[in-house]
Amino acid sequence: MGGKSRQIGTAETQPLAGLLNTPAQSIFSSLTAVALGLSAGDLRVSLKPISKSANSIDDIVLTAVVPNPTDHDIRVIGKNNVLDNSTTSSFAVSKDDNTVLFTTGIRTTLDLSAEGVYVTIPAGSSIAVNHTRLGPLFDFNTHGTGKFKFAPKTVFQTGYDADPLQVEVDAVEVNVAHDVAKREVFPLERRASTPTCGNSARLTVLKNALSDARVRAGGAASDINTHPNSAEFKTYFGGNKQADIWYNFDRIAGDLASSGTRKIYCNKDHASLCGGSGGVIAGGKIVGSDHWLTRLPKRLIYTCDYLFNNVGSTAGVCSGGFDSTASSKGGVILHELSHATAGTADIAYGCSATAKLSAATGFE
């Protein structure tokens, strides 16, 4: 099924320089990290299942084709969207209008200066991506057999703060007749809300970064309470309930029981995402349901060598007039804690780009 594209809104926002020192904006910059933007029609997306019926969730295979109809090559971020067939979330899945949770996989923090983050689609050509490992990533078991709807994530950017392009494409359905039993992508482990590392120097770095992340989250929560109608809140969370946004930050700041428990590792990489030019700084591993009431998945946090060797220790998440995921170790941990506690998703990268998201998408 083909799709049309649209450039996500260009509503006026506060000048970035005026927002850099406010807690809520500084925090939000770390939760969503986005050069020249794309124009409507630059990219298209089609999505088809190999088969509309499957005996097992292991048999679900979706093929996405992203054509570039222009006369120039287009280089876009190829992570956390339909171009990404790793164990991240490239689809929103539902059944009978009920959301099927993404319960097993990886949420990553990216260095957008790394070449491996990007995909180039040649002029007048297209790229096809097969998604073959969807079965273990989502909570199909809770919803039972039947028709599942897959809506691809189709927000594309060319780099930091580039205007995001949303390509509209119809969701597809696959009927699973029998096997929807829960799978595990990674080995199960105990969780504890503590940094875990055999290297004492790196352990200290993780402890300091965790402390910094909680302070930032607390500052944001306080700022939201004391300035509920601030320009920053309206810019990044407008249309959402103040209490909901405050609660997400407060869970990080207080490490409340409702946020679950986890370890933050310095020496494990089950998904083989670290190293090379892939641009991964850290990742959160999702390994099943933590609380039957909230159905919040268990999330463990893993850090790559890049965090210790390349990411700054500055107290500022935003510096020099731009937001960078490589500017603050505390910002990286905060980013991962937002995935772990509130289940946030990476949709757009950069302050200006995230300000243009819809209220519903901004809450994610």
Report on this structure.
With 364 residues, this protein is an alpha+beta fold. It has 9 helices and 20 strands. Strand 6 (91-95) and strand 7 form a beta hairpin.
Number of strands: 20
Superfamily (CATH H level) name of the largest domain: Collagenase (Catalytic Domain)
Radius of gyration: 20 Å
Spatial gap, N to C terminus:
26 Å
From the 3D structure, determine the CATH topology of the largest domain.
Collagenase (Catalytic Domain)
The number of distinct structural domains comes to 2
Order of helices and strands: EHEEEEEEEEEHEEEEEHHHEEEHEEHHH
For the record, the CATH class of the largest domain is: Alpha Beta
Catalogue the unreliable spans. 9-35, 188-193, 286-297, 318-322
Family: Belongs to the peptidase M35 family.
Cofactor: Zn(2+)
Keywords: Hydrolase, Metal-binding, Metalloprotease, Protease, Zinc
Domain Lysine-specific metallo-endopeptidase: 227-358
For this entry, give a set of tags.
364 residues, alpha+beta, Collagenase (Catalytic Domain), Immunoglobulin-like, five-stranded mixed β-sheet, 9 helices, 20 strands, 24% helix, Lys_MEP, zinc, metalloprotease, protease, MetalloPept_cat_dom_sf
